[in-house]
Amino acid sequence: MLSFPHSHRSLPNHVSHLLPLRRNPNFATVLHLSSATSSPISASSAVPHRQQEPLQPPDTAISEDTLRKHNAKSIALVLHRSENANQLHQEAIPEEEKLRILEMSLVTKRTPQFPGSIYIQPSQSETSKPPLAKIFDGESDEGDDEIIMRALEIRRNVTVEIFKEAMQKGKFGITYSNNLASRLPDFIDYVMIEAASMKQLPEFSHSTFNARAKTVIQDSNVVPLIRWLKHNSLSYPRIGKLICMSRGKLETIKQLVEWLKTIHVKGEFFGFVIMKAGEDILERRIEELDEIVQYLENNGVRRDWMGAVMSRCPQLLSYSIEEVKTRVGFYLDMGMNEKDFGTMVFDYPKALGYFTLEEMNEKVIYLKEFGLNHEEVGRLLAFKPQLMGCSFEERWKPLVKYLYYLGIGRDGMRRMLIIKPMVFCVDLEKTIVPKVRFFQDIGIRDYAIGNMLAKFPPLLTYSLYKKIRPAVIFLMTKAGVSRKDIAKVIALAPELLGCSIVHKLEVNVKYFLSLGIPLGILGEMIADFPMLLRYNIDVLRPKYRYLRRTMVRPLKDLIEFPRFFSYSLDDRIVPRHRAVVEKRVNFKLRYMLASSDEEFAQRVEAAVERRTRFESGLMAMGDTDALSGSQTTNDSLVDF
Question: Left (φ > 0), alpha (ψ -120 to 50) or beta: where does 284 sit?
């Protein structure tokens, strides 16, 4: 008989009465029972051929794959619980293991498969959900916070997948669903919170998180709303922003969009108007918005203009009715009537709703420094409301200093502001300075540039490379203007730079050349009278015909006085020509036309008097000659 008196010492006390059984074909069964209060009892069969091997320690025997024991399942269960208990108190779970356990506990959806793929069945350890209590030891607050944040992230990802599944069931594509889900972080959090709070309801107390999240998404009707917004020309980024702005009250979006349709806002501007109208636009009542629109309509803004106005300045919808009345009164107090005010708001809605009242007052005060009164400022803003969008610190003051450097005084700036207020809205360095440098390069002096700009302010709004330079090149190459005269031509008639080369300048040049005027002579005529190229052919042709056929004047007279075409045929040329013919006097074209009526009458009387004296002198001289001839005859007769 074999006995193992010391083999039970390595086992725990609560399992010391259980000893392993080892089966070997060459050995008989060995049974050893021991307890804490009794001596070891051994039983064995005779071993005739080989000496029995010593029994392995329990911990080593258990780890071997070839072991087979009586009551193996019970022993393994007891040992497993004992080891887990000791490990739970002695060893800490790694952070990666905690995150894996957390993800396995929260994520229940298997990986999506496609037709023909091979699905690998997960093992029992992967499918079983470990208890979450194992990963919260309560000793490290920072570690617990990290685990909680990771749990929220996993829940959020699960909610996103549920939302994508709902979108795909609503006949949306995978790409569109993914793009839109990435734009809905606030709505995803809202679904998470609502799904978690539904756990307290009796009917959802035993349902899973996925089922509750699907219920929230379905009850919110977000998928039909997305389809409706997409049908109204809204892109998915704007749809995402609108849904996040609604804070779960998705029905307010549809109500507001329907109201925007009533004021003629186009579908492509729905998202822009709602997002720019303020965060509380979805919380405002439709009656308040109708009151604002009705007040603007009563003050000259037409109903069919309202959509364009709100699309370009949605901030008007964020104001109270008192604020809107204050802003409207700001312009009406400057003498605007309802028609001018409505046109101003339609042309530039930001003048009414974008800027603060302090900024508007400061700009009006600055405009008055140019010598404009309150009513003139009102007319100016009604004509060019874009002035309200210009900064007087960054744009107006530098421009005024530059114009003063060119010799333009306050009166000249006032003229520029009234004739072409757009000059005060353009960029100084990019628009005005390059043009002034170009004029300096072609020989125009600074004071002449100042006079030219004050005389014709629209010149500063023309494109340098598309309008001004091509016109100068045409005058020098096709119209015969020399290099020394081009500065004089531009300084005297800057309006030429605004004429169309094809439809105006080239047509006039061809007409004058057809009259037999050489190109060089035509260039001298243009230098003497640059406005010659601005007249229409229908105006030039009757005057030239009257000059050549009725007045019977040579072409030389026209070359000497090209300003002939600037005078009215019926009011100046024909009456004075008739007066000259009646009085039987003759003048050059310059003296006949370039004078007032009084001067012309005096000049005609002087010419008639000279002619009378001249004729009287000739008659007196003829009488004297006749008298002397008769005396000679008498003398000869007497002498004969």
Answer: beta
Nearest CA among 240, 253, 261, 243 for reference residue 281: 253
Poorest-confidence range of 19-23, 470-474, 605-609?
19-23
- Tens of pLDDT, residue by residue over 325-351, are 889 888 888 888 888 888 888 988 888
Query: Contact 565/540 with Cβ under 8 angstroms?
Result: yes
Torsions phi, psi for 219 (to 5 deg)? -70, -25
- Please name the residue that has the structure tokens 């170009």: 438
C-alpha torsion sign, points 553, 554, 559, 565: positive
Give me 561's structure tokens. Answer: 């006085």
Q: Identify the pLDDT of residue 525.
A: 92
CA angle 302, 295, 293 (to 5 degrees): 65
**Residues 374, 363: Cα–Cα separation, whole Å:** 12
Residue 489: closest CA among 466, 505, 510: 505
The answer to whether residues 155 and 162 touch, using CB atoms and an 8 Å cutoff, is: no
* 65 residue type, one letter: D
pLDDT score recorded for residue 49: 41
**Closest to 353 measured CA to CA, from 436, 437, 282, 292:** 292
Strand, helix or coil at 33? strand
C-alpha 16/C-alpha 58 separation (Å) is 10
Extended beta strands in 232-303, E state: none
Q: pTM, whole model, 2 decimals?
A: 0.61
- The SS3 of residue 631 is helix
